[in-house]
């Protein structure tokens, strides 16, 4: 009997062929996450992506669903408890974002060290000016919260700038590219060394509001804060206070507690803040990379009954 894979995102014909070649005995059908076909989904063993209003269909008691490949690295918006109870395998898109997000992180850091954000404003006002405060990344210290694919790629590139790299992770285990690694419980100690505090963390019960006044007050005076992980890992009011007091010299933000950021939010008017609209991970190579993860996982799934890459631990929520 033919089994069913449904992808809720657009795939090119070449990407579809790669999946079909990796999944003999399965059909592949494209769905629409914005307007899901519940009848189509009701017979799926494997889902790539997710859609609004599909939970009741996919998580019913007699559903054939066995594996969900999320379209994002973060999985906090999925019905994790229900999926765990049903024994559904969940893999995420970790690794897809490393290159584009690392580029955004260094865009923020280079703009701050070279005062490019003020240069752009001066250009718009036809003003020829430098305050003489330009610096460089060489010799600076980056404290990177999260030593996964994004954090590791950021550390690797930082070494090309001859920076010192300090990681922060749940385990505190040594990781390639990092001079040393602290545990999350040592975050307050680690930020005291940072010229740049870089937050790449997912949102979990443990990371909710982790970056708050206590952490910012422990930071080196004049450090910069960069968040490309999840907005809810940061107490925004505490961040604004640290920026206004000068404890933090600036912030590069791609994610926010409320998205879209309200038009009257004070962050919009802060000249020491650079913002992007949660697009740090966007790239024209996104689908190619997810298909690569999926096809490699499909091989493992056919051989052992379980994908081998990016398998989410429900107890950790990532």
How does this model look, in words?
By secondary structure, the protein is an alpha/beta fold. It has 2 domains: 3-95 and 284-304, Rossmann fold (3-Layer(aba) Sandwich); 98-275, 3-Layer(aba) Sandwich (Rossmann fold). It is 32% helix and 16% strand. The protein is built from 11 helices and 12 strands. It is elongated and about 70 Å long.
CATH class of the largest domain: Alpha Beta
| CATH H-tier superfamily of the largest domain | NAD(P)-binding Rossmann-like Domain
CATH topology of the largest domain: Rossmann fold
Tell me the β content: 15-25%
GO molecular function: NAD binding; oxidoreductase activity, acting on the CH-OH group of donors, NAD or NADP as acceptor
Family: Belongs to the D-isomer specific 2-hydroxyacid dehydrogenase family.
Domain D-isomer specific 2-hydroxyacid dehydrogenase NAD-binding: 107-280
Domain D-isomer specific 2-hydroxyacid dehydrogenase catalytic: 12-307
Please give a handful of descriptors for the protein shown.
seven-stranded parallel sheet, five-stranded parallel sheet, Rossmann fold, 2 domains, 16% strand, alpha/beta, 318 residues
